[in-house]
Amino acid sequence: MTYSSVFVTQSAPSLIVPDYCEIFRYMGYSLHDRIAASAKFSSDAENAGKIDGIEEPGNVANAEIAGDADRSSCNSEIHQMVAQVTADFQKLMTPLAVYALFPLEITGDFLRFGRERIKSRELSRYLKECHSVFLFAATIGPKIDREIQKMQRIESSRAVIMQAVGAMFIEKYCDLLCTELKNQAIAENMAVKNRFSPGFSDVGLEVQKIFFSLLDCKKIGLTLMESLIMAPEKSVTAFVGVKNNA
Asked: Is residue 134 within 8 Å of 51, Cβ to Cβ?
């Protein structure tokens, strides 16, 4: 693995497998209801009209779900919208990421990587076994944001579903990217920690500025606003620690 070199990577949207349980979690469903709702999208039937184990919207409405008739009708409409938005977003999104690996030094609560130094007790503890750290920025592109913003002016209930689907897709893309980084580490007989993002615990959003300083985020169309929120909104930055394999 090469230190400090910035790499840009792009993934085919078809490689990002939808997680319907996560969509319903972002929509505020309870665990029980998430499991019941996401089960409707499992690939356990042989009916025609399914693609990659996902029922087409026209078939989702025909499926039997628990509850009384009124709730069944309402849920079927929601499931139909979830299926349609998921299919639409998988065509619209452009998953892109930029990342680099840096030597990591930890002294007490301070971490030094690249030309930067930050203070975080939690991140220092989390990465204490690591000698290097990946920094990455990932996005699923601006088209998703535009569709959500447009729908917020037209139909707020559908916009909520779109927000949930977009959140699911960027998280799943980050999982895919982390698998790629993990494979790079394994090739060098190393291992990685789970990702840790700014805004979590005592790592403030101001740390976003460091990612934009060390990574060429403009290459993937990513900008940081004065509010420290990224545009496109469905984007993530994260640390991924690298340690020696036990």
From this structure: no
